[in-house]
Amino acid sequence: MTLKYKLVAKDIAQKIDDQVYTDKLPSEQELINHYQVSRNTIRNALNLLYNQGMVRSIQGSGYFVNTSAQPGELIVNGGSKKGLYDLEKADPISSKVLSLEVIPADQEIATRLQCPLATDIYHVKRLRSNSKEVVSLEDAYYLKSVVPYLTEEVCRESIFNFITKTYGVEIKNGDEFIKLARLTKAEADLTGLEVAAPALHLTEVNYLKNEQPFNYSKTLYLQSDLTLYYHVSNYLN
Predict the structure, then answer these.
(1) For residues 39-67, average pLDDT
(2) Which is nearest to 134 in space by CA: 67, 194, 185, 205?
(3) Under the phi-then-psi rule, with left for phi > 0, alpha for psi from -120 to 50, and beta for the rest, what region is 142?
(4) Is 134 helix (H, G, I), strand (E, B) or coil?
(5) Which residues lie closer than 8 Å to 124 by C-beta, 6 or more apart?
């Protein structure tokens, strides 16, 4: 059963995505009245949104939608796990499914997903674009025991939205590794870009609530004005 503060946080997050809230959030008391919950529930929900980097707190003034410090750039919030699908509503991201298949886990996948060799894995390869340019090339792997059913139709949109709503998957934590890469000939052929063109390479492993990894992906971000954003907290100081 989802805790009440998480339901409130998800609803506020959806309102931010839908641009119902674009600047200052309603006051704590207004949120208490709207959701008919306790003050602690609202504070826990706001803290969750703060830790996700979706809102910022200004002492004495309240909570505000966290906007880019670099206006005009496209921002991917690495903490939100929403990915590219909802990134740009004015020029939506579309996905071309290059391949979708069930494969046995090889040594690399088994190590990343902490599963036995030959475990059934969904492998999805997608090319993602907006109306102007190619945005990313993605290889993603999902444990079939956690995500038992995927279709090309699902993969043309947000896979994470589908699996959270359909299978009740809660993505608790993730590890992300970013490096600068240059396109191989095969990658250049798929994207229509030049061999050795620079790209941002993101390797990602996502975990369930019980810390079981269920998704491993390798994504090349190709858009020149794309910014990856992370909200970072240091609890050791």
Answers:
(1) 88
(2) 194
(3) beta
(4) strand
(5) 97, 99, 100, 138, 139, 140, 141, 142, 150, 155, 159
Q: Nearest 5°: phi and psi at 143?
A: -65, 125
Q: Do the beta carbons of residue 165 and residue 158 sit within 8 Å?
A: no
> What's the mean pLDDT in 106-126?
98
β-bridge pairing 55-58 and 134-143 = unpaired
Ramachandran region, residue 19 (left: φ > 0; alpha: ψ -120 to 50; beta: rest): left
State percent of the chain over pLDDT 70. Answer: 86
Q: Read out DSSP for 67-133?
A: --SSTTSEEEETTT--TTTTS-SSS--EEEEEEEEEEE--HHHHHHHT--TT-EEEEEEEEEE-SSS
pLDDT, one tens digit per residue, over 132-158 is 889 899 999 999 999 999 999 999 988
- φ/ψ region of 211 (left if φ > 0, alpha if ψ in -120 to 50, else beta) reads left
The whole-angstrom separation of Cα 56 and Cα 47 is 10
Other CB atoms within 10 Å distance of the CB of residue 94: 16
Residue 96 corresponds to which tokens in the numbers above? 């071309």
Q: How many percent of the chain have pLDDT more than 90?
A: 59
